[in-house]
Amino acid sequence: QVQVVESGGGSVQAGGSLRLSCVASGYTIGSYFLGWDRQAPGKEREGVASLLSDGTSSYADSVKGRFTISQDNAKKTLYLQMNSLKPEDTAVYYCKIRRGYALYWGQGTQVTVSS
User: Fold this and answer.
1) Does residue 87 surpass a pLDDT of 90?
2) Which of 36, 44, 95, 113 could cross-link to 22 by cystine, CB 3.0-4.6 Å?
């Protein structure tokens, strides 16, 4: 079993920045980070940023140029740097990990952006 814990969320004003972190623990052998999803109230969960197998990253159009995904393999930690935040970025953000055929998410971290 892989445990996933997201942190770093909070309340900020529009234009502000936050850095989310995701730590994997437990039986992590063979697991790898896939990226970040988010879910806003009343909306479906959507992909925000992904790590691709070729070492590059991809982003939802709505966050391109503002969000940056990165990872520290030694610390088994995934990050999401979020700049120029907008009220529409308000959501619960989830880190996604794959191990074999299984996907794991944590409880999420709340990001609230006020105008």
Assistant:
1) yes
2) 95
